[in-house]
Amino acid sequence: MLRILSTQPPVPSWQHMYMLEAMTFKMKIAVDDPNITADEICAQVWTNIYHRGNPNGHWHAVPLPVLKSSSELNNGKKELVFSDSVILTSDGEEYRFTFRARVKQRTWMWANDYKVDGLVRISPPTGEKWTQGPEFNQICENIYLGNFMASSIADELGFHSILNVAENLDLVSSKFSHEILYRKIPMMDGARNKIPDHLIQEAVSWLEEQDALNKKTIVNCRAGIGRAGSTVVAYVFYKNPTWSFEQCYKFVSEKRFIYPHNGLEETLYRLYPRIHLEP
Questions:
Q1: Are 74 and 92 in contact (CB under 8 A)?
Q2: Cα–Cα distance list, 74 to 33, 77, 78, 148 (Å)
């Protein structure tokens, strides 16, 4: 009924990628039954790769939407291509992936035998588009989220305060043309690195002080999407005690591409319990 003809990357294979690069997956499937439509086919990558939808590094499915179909073959048979990309959000050890597909709720068809997977090693970020120039976005009235390059010209951009959460990057605030309040709370890069409770609390408290003083504040890491993004989600979560984590994450991510760090959701619910309003 279904036959997996090919996958990209092949399985097995070994890939080398960089954090914050987009990794594209494709699967070509032959459909022998002319009555089966693309909408009835579920195609997935099964992987433990960290990306914005998998901040905890669990084995999980990445859905692959249908990309295109070739012309129909003999007897109404057809070939379909399913594809999607994920942004890699953590470097480190080798991660694994394979492919599977099925029609509706029938048994999964795997691209390869059990534990025969593709491997990918992810190196620290290099030359990613988020660091090629100053980038920042307004999240709340006084709170902005951006990259290190934006903070490096914070005076030109009209900021009063900077929160730098990049462990390996620092700013010389004395070089600014006017006085800017500078605070560094170092956090480790990569989604697999959990942000300690005390660093989240310290960052949220400092942002609250700046916000209360009506200070235009930028939060940065290297690219302004991982550590800084998690920090701003934490602040929005703190300021809105009736909102769920999903609401806070959506609120920030609709304004700038971000990804959460490992365990962020669990940490925030523990540190800042929700207020449940009566219906």
A1: no
A2: 11, 6, 8, 57
Residue 236 near residue 140 (C-beta atoms within 8 A): yes
Cα separations in angstroms, 6 against 15, 98, 169, 232: 17, 12, 43, 41
On whether both 80 and 172 belong to a single domain, the answer is: no
Residue 20 sits in a domain whose CATH number is 2.60.40.10
Instruction: Give the number of domains in the chain.
Output: 2
- Is residue 278 assigned to a domain? no
Q: Is residue 23 part of a domain?
A: yes
Identify whether residues 52 and 185 lie together within a single domain.
no
Distance from C-alpha of 97 to C-alpha of 11, rounded to nearest angstrom:
8
Torsions phi, psi for 191 (to 5 deg): -60, -25
Rounded to two decimals, the pTM is 0.91
Span between the terminal Cα atoms of the chain, in Å = 50
DSSP state at residue 35: T
State the SS3 of 111-170.
CCCCCCCEEEEEECCCCCHHHCCCCEEECCCCEEEECHHHHHCCCCCCCCEEEEEECCCC
Q: What are the tens digits of pLDDT across the range 61-117?
A: 999 999 876 655 556 688 999 999 999 999 988 999 999 999 988 899 999 999 899
Which residue among 76, 100, 123 closes a domain? 123
Shared domain for 253 and 146, answered yes or no, is yes
